[in-house]
Amino acid sequence: MFELIYRDLYGEQQLLKQGIVPSEIVFADPGFLRQCHGMHLPGAKALILHAVDLVRGENGQFVAIGDRTQSPSGSGYALENRTVVSRVMPGLFRDSNVLRLSAFFQTLRQTLAGLVSHKTDTPRVVVLTPGAYSSTYFEHAYLANYLGYPLVQGGDLTVRNGKVWMKSLNGLSPVDVILRRLDDSFCDQAELRADSMLGVPGLLEVARNGNVVLANPLGSGVLEAPGLLAFLPDICQFLLGQPLQLPSVRTWWGGNPQDYDYVINHLDQLIIKPTYRSFASKSIYGHSLDAKARAETLAMLAKNPAGYVAQCYIPGSQAPIWQGQRLDGRPGILRTFTVATNNGYSVMPGGLSRVAESTAEVIVTKLSGSRSKDTWILSDKPEVEQSAVTEFPRDEAQVTNLPSRVIENLFWFGRYAERAEVSLRLMRTIFKQLNGVEPLPPESRNILLQALSQVSGCLPGFTENEELLENPNDELAALVTDHERAGSIKANLQAMLACGEQVKEMLSADTRIILNELRDHIHEVDRAYTHGLPSVPEESLDSLVTTLLALSGLNNESMLRGMDWMFQEIGRRTERALLTATLLKATLGSPLPGMQQQLILESLLLSVEALISFRRRYRTGTRIEFGLDLLMIDLSNPRSLIYQINQLRKYLNELPRTESLTSGLSPENRLIIKSLNDIQLADLAQLAHVDHRQHSRASLQQLMSQIIEQLEQFTSLLSDKYFDHTAGPQQLIKAKWKAEL
Length: 741
Known about the structure:
- This protein has 741 residues and is an alpha+beta fold.
- It is built from 31 helices and 18 strands.
- Strands 1, 2, 14, 15, 16, 17 and 18 form a 7-stranded antiparallel sheet that branches. The chain has a 4-stranded parallel sheet with strand order 4-3-8-9. A 4-stranded antiparallel sheet has the order 10-13-11-12.
- The longest helix is centred in the middle third of the chain and has 31 residues, at 404-434.
- It is elongated, with a radius of gyration of 32 Å.
């Protein structure tokens, strides 16, 4: 029926012309988008998804108390609940002959594909989310992964030449269908809310021209208005010629004088709601009002009667929960879901049951934050289990063609993780040396502290302040815990976690567990450093280092070698190469006499976990050349400089190309090969030679500066090429051919 209401309100408007629905119920509703009037929608059904909240009354009958038609949420939570319950109680689940949910989502996938079947057999469908800070982002990510669709934000999409495109790894990719999880008004800054940061400018015009299909269509928010429920029985009779099969809650609209009189005389038995649904709208329970609140409510109704509706108060039936080691009861609500098919609508065999957190709550209003339950619909015979993999085969091209935002966040996820790890390792080494049995010579201490400032990027830090060098404790504590200081360990870890939040759908469950543990360890370090450095500061950082190592190991052992893993590795290897070159320049670039130089070399090797290997290989030799051999050109050392550059060259050859086959090496490839040659052709003896006029190892400093500059240029080229597209690969190649002709 809501399908027919939508088509009528944005079409012939017979409901308004025949007086079935007062015009102010529709035209005064911000959810009614005049821009959508007369818009042609492909497919047999305009509304693809519909959800309804049901409460079971005292007589045992379910009553509908609200509908969700813009971007119905909750189906992903129901699926996740089913997955968990079926694993926790497999025997009970199997023996109970529970109807599976997979067929519902298979129907959804088929319906979405069918919306553009007249254009293409391989449609590109995306899930549009407000982003990681949405309260229901988990569901968006979970549902996108299950269906096999890219999860995109508004910034991932752009309108060009009358079509919607996704900014992807392979360039601009056309989008055919958008399964949106974004409210109507935020979807288009050009025609709807200009202050929205979530939508795609020009999206409504593209949809109006039929070049993209939105599920559900824009303007469907008007169907969620509580005021519409007051006229639903008459609407059903007018459109279908029959009464409602599932009753909706009895509703009175304040704009009707008879209804208004009933409301003010029976306020104690009713719930007062705004006529039009909004994010900030709240319900007023008449039976809970004291004398003052009752008077204020009556005054509010008298001031704007048409702005409010009243509904019967139906206490939700009690559902059992396990609380305090015993069974208890809480009021519950059931949300059910339907999806459009060619012949009608298919109902999910189950739903999302929610229960209140406390007995003080009389009805459940929040989707996220409340407890949820898996709802079973039982069959009289076992159902054949179907695999999600065979139901939803992924298009290989779409699997690799990820949104640029996802790739960029994974790239920086790897970089921030490496920054934090290298800083942590160097800082632990400095603490060990400062707190060692033998006092650390001032010259060696100064070089290590200055190297820490340069590696972390917290400049000037120790590089220009003699007082900090003499009393480094406060600065060292700040480098660990000051989250407002760019380059500090905490700032890097928080930046890494923020990148992880943006691509949560790409991270495995184990990875998310490790990230949660990392958050706990950050809080522990904060508490340890509350009053300056702890008594054993190096041990306080151990948990952070081991957690980062666990994260790195999990990514290497568990992640598929797709483009998401590739760019995370490119970020990690690039940052490790940059920081290794910076470390070599900062620690070995300035010579020291005898034992002091040996202490610097050993500290450097200790910070990169290479001291034991160095001693086994070179025994008592501590020459600078030997250290450079291990840290620069040893391909067997996974932390050597050449190892990182060699890995980057390997990964670059596997990335999508946007140049023609005859264009030769790409600029980023040239930089990597040049860096590789510079390292391989370096004379270690010359690099270790001290220029006494400058009192430095000038050749080493010059080479490391050159490597750092080339790597920084490499990251800029990579960013321009893969993270912010203005044209796809084919457009670039065609443009090049035209230029040559």
